[in-house]
Amino acid sequence: MSFEGINSVHLLGIGGIGMSALARWFRHEGYAVSGYDRTPSPLTDELIAEGMKISFEDKLETIPSQITNSPERALIIWTPAMPKDSAQLNFFRNKDFQLKKRSEVLGMVTSSYYTIAVAGTHGKTTTSSMIAHMLKSAGKPVVAFLGGITQNYQSNLILGDKKAKEPALVVVEADEFDRSFLRLHPNEIVLTSADPDHLDIYGDEEHILDGFSEFVNLVDKKGRLYIQQHAMQRLGESKLPKVLTREYGLRSSGISAENIQARPGSFVFDYVDSKNEIKGLELFIPGFHNVENALAAIAIALDHHISEEQIRAGLSSFKGVKRRFEIHVNEGSHVFIDDYAHHPEEIRACLSSVRAMFPTRKLTVIFQPHLFTRTRDFAEGFSESLSLADSVILLDIYPARELPIEGVTSSMLLENINTRHKELVSKENLMNHLDKASPEVLVTLGAGDIDRLVPVIASWMKKGLNRYAL
């Protein structure tokens, strides 16, 4: 894939997980890549180390001269997360640069490849990563644009071998935020879920279902749709495209999992569909939801003529995605798991899986709500799902792109959390609180900056374990 006449690419919001994958792809393809982001991060550090020029000041003088001197040969990619008053964004707009959203550029890329697009309110990052790994480990040429850092490849971009005889398969995480996924050109689609979210964008549940329906109907007429059973019920068969459609789910009548066994570090299950049965598969990223994600990945692998032996190897060697049910400590009587869950259904899936793995242990959850609108819209659901824990610690809401909303705080979740031990704790006082609580099984949840506390908590727990061993 080439962008005719372009020799340099500048990304506004380059440190975002989706933007950085595009930046890496363009760098791999030989373009000069630069960008701006508000704050440094481990991800921007990696991009700089890979040869990209990144500024953390929204000033015109930080834009590389290669961009400003040759606007006709530059491509500017921006994300809707950029503020409207951004100096660089408005400069590029006013000077008639070729300015495109990330979703537009990803659409241009997917238009030239056989593309497998994975969408859904939750589950899409793990599922797309699992599909890409399963194909790549079986020797298929793969390019994958992912919404998380895979543990196998330590990147959100997986690249194929340019010398491969077969054309590359593109696996792309299709983001419903801002309706970005409607710009893609998928040959196959996986829809992992269709629960309401992003109501600040869509307005109500009916409109987000319309968005998912519009997306699945983008699939190529000769393509395939893999759809999770509850998502299929929510959309309704009448809104689905007239293509080969395969329903999957833990108890689906189409593709299902049987004999599921929850173990302390893995889940074992049988894959079953109308033509195939693969027994005793072991997945080392635990969780009932991850077994369900694996069903879609296995179905796609089978449809791409990957053998049972290769599927077993690909599944068992998949190490997961950072911050998706990531086990940091699992030693003796102490466990620490971190997860990106920021929606009530994601929290329910995560905590029910932890319960199955450690049924006799006390479960403590630290949750940082993400967005004022999401907290307001799903307050009841958050309280209900968090009630699966024995003890709940709430941090303040992470605002991300939003301004505060009067009356919307973490405390509004407390009253309806049905557990005896529940409280608000500041990030500054969290470690002192944990010292006193001494949790057995600890889970951190949220999509904000709670991830910056994860290494601190993991180190604290490991030091505690060492003390107990003395």
Rg, please? Answer: 22 Å
Number of distinct helices: 17
Largest pleated sheet: 7 strands, mixed
Strand content: 15-25%
- Spans of at least 5 consecutive residues with low confidence: none
Strand order of the largest sheet: 8-7-9-6-10-11-12
Q: Overall pLDDT, averaged?
A: 92
Broad structural category = alpha/beta
Helix content: 25-40%
Account of the protein in words:
- With 470 residues, this protein is α/β, with parallel strands linked by helices.
- The chain is built from 17 helices and 21 strands.
Write the layout of secondary structure elements.
Elements: E1 8-12, H1 17-28, E2 32-36, H2 42-49, E3 53-55, H3 65-69, E4 74-78, H4 87-94, E5 98-101, H5 102-110, E6 114-119, H6 124-137, E7 142-150, E8 155-158, E9 169-173, E10 188-191, H7 199-202, H8 205-216, E11 224-228, H9 229-235, E12 244-248, E13 256-262, E14 267-272, E15 277-283, H10 288-303, H11 308-317, E16 326-331, E17 334-339, H12 344-357, E18 363-367, H13 372-377, H14 379-386, E19 391-394, H15 411-414, E20 421-424, H16 430-437, E21 441-445, H17 454-469
Parallel strand pairs: 1-2, 1-4, 2-3, 4-5, 6-9, 6-10, 7-9, 10-11, 11-12, 17-21, 18-19, 18-21, 19-20
Antiparallel strand pairs: 7-8, 13-14, 14-15, 16-17
Helix pairs in contact: 6-10, 6-11, 12-14
